[in-house]
Write a structure and sequence with these properties.
Blueprint lengths: L10 E7 L3 E7 L6 E6 L5 H15 L4 H5 L2 E7 L2 H8 L5 E6 L5 H4 L4 H4 L4 H4 L17 E4 L2 E2 L5 E3 L3 H13 L4 E5 L8 H13 L4 E4 H4 L5 H31 L6 E4 L5 E3 H6 L7 H17 L4 E6 L4 E7 L2 E2 L6 E2 L2 E2 L8 E3 L5 E5 L6 E7 L18 H7 L17 H16 L3 H23 L11 E5 H15 L3 E4 L6 H7 L3 E12 L4 H21 L7 E11 L6 E5 L7 H19 L10 E12 L20 E8 L6 E8 L8 E3 L2 E4 L4 E4 L3 E5 L5 E5 L1
Parallel strand pairs: 1-4, 4-11, 5-6, 5-9, 9-10, 13-21, 21-22, 28-30
Antiparallel strand pairs: 1-2, 2-3, 7-8, 11-12, 13-14, 14-15, 14-18, 16-17, 19-20, 22-33, 23-26, 24-25, 24-26, 27-28, 29-32, 30-31, 32-33
Helix pairs in contact: 1-10, 3-10, 7-8, 12-17, 13-14, 13-15, 14-15, 15-16
Amino acid sequence: MEPAKGAQSGYVVAVDVGGTCTDCVVFREGEPVHVGKSFSTPPDFAHGVMDSVRSAASGMGTDLPGLLGSTRLFLHGSTVVDNTLFTRDGAVTGLITTAGFEDTLLITRGAYGRWSGQPEDVIKHPVATDRPLPLVPRERIEGIFERVDSKGEVLEALDEQSVIRAVDALLAQGVTAFAVCLLWSFRNPAHEQRVREIIAARAPQAEVSISCEIAPVPGEYERTSTTVINAYAARVTRAYLDQLGGLLREAAYHGPLLVMQGYGGLVPVDEAARRPVGMIECGPAAGMTGSRHIGSVLGERNIIAADMGGTTFKVGVIRDGELDYAREPMVDRYHYVAAKLEVVSIGAGGGSIVSVEPHTRRPRIGPRSAGSRPGPVCYGRGGTEPTLTDVAAIIGYMDPTTFLGGSVPLDIDAARRVFADKVARPLGMGVDEAAIGIYRIASAQLSDLVRNVTVERGLDPRDFVLHAFGGSCGLFAGAFARELGIRRVVVPFTASVNCAYGMVAADVVHNYSVVQPMPAPASAQAVNAIFEPMAAKARAQLAAEGFAPDRIALEYSVDLRYRRQVHQVNTPLKGALPVSAEACTALLGDFEALYEQRYGRGSAFRAAGIELVNFRLKASGRMARPDSPPEALVGESPAAAQTGERLMFVEGEAKLAPGRIYDFEKLHPGNRIAGPAVVHSAITTVVVQPGQAAQLDAWRNLVIAAS
C-alpha cells in the first residue's frame, strides 16, 4: 500500500456518507483541497458515494474515471452499521455462550439497562422504562458445556458434542451469523477458537464473531453485547463494502480502500469487514479528527467542534489538542466496548421535521428527519412536512438559486405554504413570526447541548473556540455561540464536508490490548513483558501495510482502578519502551489526577490500593496531511462579493429586516463582513448576526467574532 510515500503521484479521495448528503474531499500535496457533494441514496448508499466523487471530479474539470484513475488511496466512512442497527435490518443472529449464562445479554447491566440511553423525559419515570429489545432473542441463545477461570486455566474441557447440538439448533432456526462469547475467553481463547472451527465445518457461509477477537476485555454484558452487534451487522457491512469496491474498480480505481473507525483512525477494508462494530459513529469521529487538524494549522488547542448536517447536531470537545474517548459507548441503547471518540448528539439537523403536538400545541423539532428522500419541502423532491431547512428558507437565510451549486432550485413558496398549514396556523401565528420562533427554539436546543458537554463537565465555553461544521451549522452557530459567550467561531472552508476532510487528516490506526490485572506498584519488568510483544506485533502489521519505521508511532496506556471498583480510568503511560521504574511511578500519579478530574476533587484515595487492569497500545501509521499554503491577505472590503440584499431574520428585530448577501466564491482572504449578513457557497450557508463580523482568513476559513 505504501500510504506514506508518493503523495505527489496521486490523489487521496475521502467520502463520508451522511443521512442527507454524501460528501467528498480530494487532496493531493501541493494542490488546494477539492470538494464534492451529492444526495445520499438509501438504501443503496454505494451509488451516492460514486455520485459525490463524480461531483468533485466535475469541479476539477474531469470525469469520474479520470479522477479515480489518478487516485492512489480511497478513504471511506459510512453509516451502514448504525443504519443496520437502527432499522433492525441485520442478519438472523444466534449467540453461543457458557452454559448457565444464557441470560447475560437479556439482563443487560441490571436495572441501569432499563433507562440507559433514554431521553431525559423518560428517565424521570424509571418504573415505566424497559430494556431494549435484544438483537438476539432468548430462543436463539444456546449454552455449551465448558469453563475457564479468571486466570485462563481450564476447569472444564470443551464438550464438543454440546457445541454441535447448539450450532445445529441455531441453524434450524435460520441463523446465518453466530456470536460466540464464553466466560474469561480473553484470558484463554482456545475454546472460542474451537467453537468457530466447528461452526465453519457445519455452516461454511455463516458469519462468526468471537469475543476474544472482537472485545477481549472484562465485563460480561458489554463483551457479549459487542460481539452480538458485530455478528448482527457483519453480513450487511461486508456486502456493502464489496459492492463499493466493485463500483470503484468499474470506475478505474484499483488502489487500496481504507475505512474510518469510531476511534478516529483508518483500517484496511478487510479488517473493517471483519469488525464492523468499529465503524459505529465513524463519521463524527472523522469530524473530530478534521477539527483537530484545522486547529493545529490555526494554532488552536481548545476547540468545541459542532457538526450539524441534515439529521443530527453533534458536539465534541478537544482539550489541549487531545481528543476525548467515550466512557460508555452506546448505539441505540446497546452498550459496546469498542474505542470511540466522545461525541454527543441530538436529533436536530437541517432535515429535522418541525411539528406541533396536538394536545399541548407545543412546537417540536425532530427527532424525526426528512432525510435526503423526500427531504425538506423547499427541495421540491416530494417533501410534505416542514423542516429546519424550510424554516431557514422562510426567514431569508437560504438562496433559492445557489443550493448545491444551483443544481437544486429551492421552492420557498412551497415551504411557506406547508409551514403555514402545519405549524403557523396551529400555533395561531403568522408564518414569519412562527418561523422566527422555531429558529430561536432550535438555537436554544443547540446551545443546551454545548452546555451539556462543557459547563456540566466543569469547562467554560468562553475558553474555547467554536468550529462550526456541516451543511446546516453555519445557519445557527453565530446565534448560539453568542448566547454561550463564545468569542470566536470558525467556519472552515471544508465545513460542509468536514467528516470527509477528517479522513484525509487521519492516520491508519490499530488498537491492541491485553488484560493482565496486577496490583500497584507494578515493576517496570512486568509492564515491559506485556507491552513489548504488543509493540512487535504492531510494528510488523504497519510495516506490512507499507509504513516505514519513521512513520510509525506507538502510544501506550493502562486502564487503572482503585481496588474492588468496577469502572476504570485509562491513563497514558509516558515515554517509549522499555518503560522505566520512574514512568511506572508517574503513571499512578497521573491516574489519580485524571480520577479527580473526572469524579471530583478529593475523590482519589491511594490507601484503597490501585490495580492495573488493561494494557493498551495505539499504533499509528502516519499519513500525509493536507497542507494548503496560506494565501495573501487583501483589503477588508467585501464589496466585490456582495450580490444584493433581502429581508431576513435579524436578532433583536421582531420581524424580517434587510440584510446583505455575499457570494463566498467571490470573497478574498482579508475581506471582512459586518452583520447582519448571509454568506452563500455552493454547499453551505453562514449567517452573521448583528454585532458580529466575519473575516476570511488566509486558509479561506470564515472567522466570526464580535465586531
